[in-house]
Amino acid sequence: KPLDAFHLGSQDDLPPSIESGIKPLDAFHLGSQDDLPPSIVENKGYNRFYFLPLILGLIGAIWHFKRKEKDAGVVGLLFFFTGLAIVLYLNQNPLQPRERDYAYAGSFYAFTIWIGLGVAAIAEFLKKRTSAKTAGIAATLIGLLMAPILMAKEGWDDHDRSEKTTARDFAIDYLESCAPNAILFTYGDNDTYPLWYVQEVEGVRPDIRVVNLSLLGTDWYIRQMKEKVNEADALPLTMTNDKFVMGVRDVIRYYDYKVEGAIELKTIFDVLTSDDPNDKVPMQDGSKDNILPTKNFKLTIDPNQILSTKTVGAAQKANIIPSLNWTYNKDYISKAELAMLDILAHNNWERPIYFAVTVPEDNYIGLKKYLYNEGFAYRLLPLIPPAIDSTAGDNDQIHTQAMYTNMLSKFKWGNIKNASYLDPESTRMISIIIKSFNQLAENLLKEGKKEEAKKTLLKLDEVVPEKNHLYYNVIHRFYTADLLYQVNEVKKANKLVEQTADYINKEVGYLGSLAQNGDNLSSREIQIGVSVLNELIKITEKNKQAALNTKIKNQVKALESKLMGNM
Hints:
Blueprint: H1 5-8, E1 9-10, H2 23-30, H3 38-41, E2 47-48, H4 52-67, H5 69-81, H6 84-90, H7 105-127, H8 132-155, H9 166-176, E3 183-186, H10 193-200, E4 209-212, H11 219-225, E5 251-254, E6 263-264, H12 265-273, E7 280-282, E8 288-292, E9 296-300, H13 303-308, E10 323-327, E11 332-334, H14 335-346, E12 353-356, E13 371-373, E14 377-380, E15 397-398, H15 400-410, H16 424-446, H17 450-463, H18 473-486, H19 490-515, H20 520-542, H21 546-566
């Protein structure tokens, strides 16, 4: 691990991206290094170290073994057992989220010892040809240039977080997406720990109970959820502790009993947690386990309860459905899903229930059609699912007024517009932000609220950087441009169209050379890029932007010729 991008160089800030800066070598495994696109050269993770820190470390290691073999062996063992040995022992798949994490810190320490000794080796070599003083000064300068100065020059900009407050601000946005006393399901580290920080340290929205679904599969965490924390009440969990202790109901399998129709959720839950042998089936080892006999669930709705808890307003009374009916989306129920079903069955709509936008869809347990986006979280609402007819490239339901208030009045944006560097997690959130603004503007236009839609798009322009940090952002940018034309922001639309077309032109031109070498991913990205360009041609023609339309058509023709030449 120490011999990776940190000591060779990197193409960008996403793994795997080793690039030394020596073009012939890099071209061998990365493709052509000529006419690199903006996604590479404008990425602040584009760091070229030319193998120099690695070479200096290897010089130090060789010199160390020649001078003091036993000492070098100790450092070598530290290097091996805190680096490669961990990889061999875990036998993990590539691209692990922790492959640059603290687990390998010891191997970095060991290798930096050798980098330091590399300076001593150079000094000893130079002493044979010049004075000791001159050799010491020269070796120090060479060592500084080969490692710390070079690495600081190339790597400082993509390690500078001084202007970025995304972790804190986005955490506030998740919480501010929720109504009072809400239950908010999250999934990973980045949508959980910052939320706990702003609640515990800054006192932001302590009324919300953050529930991490990755932890909810453990008995100790479920027990914690049964206790009040700060101003957040305990979760409406009815299971006694013996029902979910480790080793009990860790996994409940699905067996299709051909049950007709949807079954009330409370009935299903009672079957899942029953200790009655008659409610269990025999296993191969002779034991009896609970099973899931059907995936067709129902949660009956009391409209008066929905209105009294202000889950929806009186204006939406006619849209309240008699029951939630859905199909469970897995072939098993883990302890986490069992706890979720307990909450859903017994909450009685007394507390709002949300899923963070970063929660994977398969964790919605089949409830997606009843989830409404209110900003950075989807709210579970007992409303008639609307017919989705979106041109903004997605199929989310929108709780328009709540989302508009949250995104235009409550949210903070982490200075993503002006921060000198945004890490990969922050740039991934930009895609979600652009998509959310597009969805909101589109729904406002459908409701005849053109002025609010315009304000929404202007807010997007105000808070989101113009730069495309991710290639697939061009899809969202196209929809933004189309919406800008619809609210008569022609100049902004033209600017965005031109920027997007120029970006795609450079990216696809480069990707064509990679596709020539059989890179299937590049072929797919080329298709997406050309498709977006063709859509930009359509919207500029529709909105009578002749000059821009002609420019993009010429770009497409030139690209097609270039791509044909690479075939």
